Each structure stands twice: as structure tokens, then as C-alpha cells.
Amino acid sequence: MSGAVTLKQNTEFHRAYGRGKVKASPQLVTYVVKNRGLGCRIGITAAKKLGSAVERNRCRRIIRAAFSSISADCSGNWDIVFVARFKTKKLKSCDLIPVMQSHLTELGVIKSSTGAEK
Fold it and tell me: What does the longest C-alpha to C-alpha distance in the chain come to?
């Protein structure tokens, strides 16, 4: 994910929280909102209640690694915010990929390859 564009401004995150669509699971919360032709950008948050800085950074690395494997499937111009949950720090990135794919498919960021939408 070295070439991916990330969200950095607080206003960008709050725009996703306020205006975006949301999908939640015990492992991850995903917010998506359309942006103005800036491509697919991501932001990752991990609250202090998850643990120490080491644990929070591990959660961010897991989410970043999972997204890098499916980032090629993202179509359109989206701002995506991933919020780590307590179960995130116990997972590996390969365990998080199916959860992330299902969230992004249901929110319309990834086009369904099976042709059967829920």
C-alpha cells in the first residue's frame, strides 16, 4: 500500500462519519463516502481503549495489510475509514480480508464478482 493515498485531516474523517454509509462487525467498522474525483483514499483509526500504542499500531498494520490485498478491486472515488475494534488485534490480516471484502461489497465500493447481490 505504499502508493495509496490516506486521509489525514480531521474534517475528512468527520465527513465520513457524518455523511457516509456504515457497516459494522465485531472485527471492524467501515465508513464510506464518495469524494470529488480524488480516487480511493483510506483512513484508519484505533482508539486508546484498544490498548497500548504497540497494540493500536498492530491493529493499523493488520488493517493496512488486508486492504492492500483488495485495493485493486476498489472502483470509483471513495473515502474509506476503517475503525479497529477489540477483536482486530487478535486477528491476522488474512482473517480480516473476507470481513473487509463483505463490508466494501455491501457498501458498493467493490463490485460483486458473483453477480448475486444481497
Answer: 42
Q: Provide DSSP, the chain.
A: -TT-EE--SHHHHHHHHHHSEEEE-SSEEEEEEE-SS---EEEEE--GGG-SHHHHHHHHHHHHHHHHHHGGGB-S-EEEEEEE-GGGGGS-HHHHHHHHHHHHHHTTSB--SSS---
Interatomic CA distance for residues 11 and 4, integer angstroms = 19
What pLDDT is stored for residue 75 in this prediction? 85
Q: How far apart are CA 36 and CA 45, in angstroms?
A: 22
- Block mean pLDDT (10 aa), the chain, length 118: 78 96 97 92 96 96 95 91 96 96 94 58
For the chain, the structural domain boundaries read 5-104
- Is domain 5-104 classified as CATH 3.30.230.10? yes
